[in-house]
Structures are given as C-alpha cells and as structure tokens.
Design goal:
The complex is a heterodimer of chains A (105) and B (121).
Chain A (H helix, E strand, L loop, with lengths): L3 E4 L2 E3 L6 E7 L7 E6 L6 E5 L3 E2 L7 E6 L2 E6 L8 E7 L10 E4 L1
Parallel strand pairs in A: 2-10
Antiparallel strand pairs in A: 1-3, 3-8, 4-5, 4-9, 5-6, 7-8, 9-10
Chain B lengths: L2 E5 L3 E2 L5 E8 L7 E7 L6 E7 L4 E3 L7 E6 L4 E6 L8 E11 L3 E7 L3 E5 L2
Parallel strand pairs in B: 2-11
Antiparallel strand pairs in B: 1-3, 3-8, 4-5, 4-9, 5-6, 7-8, 9-10, 9-11
The chains are: A mainly beta (105), B mainly beta (121).
Chain lengths: 105, 121
C-alpha cells in the first residue's frame, strides 16, 4: 500500500507569510494528488486536485506543485481564515490521506 | 449548487450495524460516483468506499468484509451499512461526490457536513 506523509505536522505563521506544506508518497503516484482544507468543526473542503488544478472558488493564493513522490501546497500570503488543518490525498485506488498539517496563526 | 446531507442514528451498540443515508439535493444522483469517508474524533481521514449510480461499488480493503454501500436513484439517496461495529468505528462519517478524470485522478467534492456516530452500549 502507498503511504502518505506530511511535513511539518504543525506550523505557526503570521498574516502575510508564505507557507509551504510538503507531502510525500511512499512510491510514485504521478500527479494523482489532492489537497483539502479542514477548519475546526467543519467538513474537509477541496482546494487542489490533480496536483495543481485549483478548485473553483478557491483563492488564487493557494497553489500546488510536484510529481512522482514529492508534492507541495503553498499559500502565498497567509490570511486569518486560512487557520485550518491541511490534508494531502493520493487520488486513486485506496485514496490514502496524509496525517495532516495544522496551521496556526 | 449540489448539496449532500448525512442522516442516521448517532449512537449504535457494539456488534450491531451502523446505517447512514446521504441525501443529494441540487442535482441528480444519476451521474458521478458517490461515497463515504470517516474521521475518528481528533484524528485523520479514512476512505470507506464508493458506488456508481448503477450500483457498482468499491470498498476499502480494511473494511470490505463489513461494509455495504447502496443507492436509491428514485430518492436521490445513497447509503452506508457497517456491520459488527466496535468502539474503533466511532467517528464522524462524511458522504461526498467522487469526481474523476484520467489526467487528475479522483477528487471528493462536495462533502456533506458530517454526522458523528458513537459506538457504545
């Protein structure tokens, strides 16, 4: 089974900072990688699918890159409403999620 | 816009069957794939399974022996049954639409708000 890891597990940043979260797959998954944002008490929300495709309605400060085993989610200028936990997901077969990265402000 | 809403008992006894429904509004269930994801309190996300509106289903290998997902197109609903539950099955259960294309793979959107199911006597 493909395992997904994320780093860091948590981070603290200030409004306006550039934030980068890394996701690593235990073997190559091409570009089959999604990112979700989950705010406290809410359902996860799709941010990016297929590594870099921004879901409709998601602010352009979010972007995704990568291929193979290494992927990144970037927030170009952190906003207060970005306080959340971010999950990567292998978008095939077992749909494995990463353990999450909690972003504090 | 399409919305999903989970419903069902919030408390299930150990060894019994957990049963949930997901009602789709704002669009027809007669396209796309539909499925379930769960999240134990304070923990990460786990994929459970999905179904096509025709009834063809696919389940997580770790839950396959206990899971059944079904669909009722006349009611625009799909369902989750998880048998022989234990405390380890206590979680928030989400339903979602599963989308696919060959370039991007699968993605889950939109999601229901989730429903907490507690397994306890």
């Amino acid at each position: 089974d493909i395992q997904m890891t994320q780093s860091p597990s948590s981070l603290s940043a200030s409004v306006g900072d550039r934030v980068t979260i890394t996701c690593r797959a235990s073997q190559s998954i091409g570009t089959y990688l999604n990112w979700y944002q989950q705010k406290p008490g809410k359902a996860p929300k799709l941010l990016i699918y297929g590594t870099s495709s921004l879901q409709s309605g998601v602010p352009s400060r979010f972007s995704g890159t990568g291929s193979g085993t290494d992927f990144t989610l970037s927030i170009s200028s952190l906003q207060p409403e970005d306080l959340a936990t971010y999950y990567c997901q292998w978008s095939d077969s077992s749909f494995t999620f990463g353990p999450g990265t909690k972003v504090d402000l | 816009q399409m919305q999903l809403q989970e419903s069902g008992p919030g408390l299930v006894k150990p060894s019994e069957t957990l049963s949930l429904a997901c009602t789709v509004s704002g669009g027809s269930i007669n396209t796309y794939y539909w499925g379930w994801i769960r999240q134990p309190p304070g923990r990460g996300l786990e994929w459970i399974g999905y179904i096509y509106y025709t009834g063809s289903a696919n389940y997580s290998p770790s839950l396959k022996s206990r899971v059944t997902i079904s669909v009722d197109t006349s009611k625009n609903q799909f369902f989750l049954k998880l048998s022989s539950v234990t405390a380890a099955d206590t979680a928030i259960y989400y339903c979602a639409r599963y989308n696919y294309d060959v370039l991007s793979g699968w993605w889950f959107d939109p999601w229901g708000q989730g429903t907490l199911v507690t397994v306890s006597s």
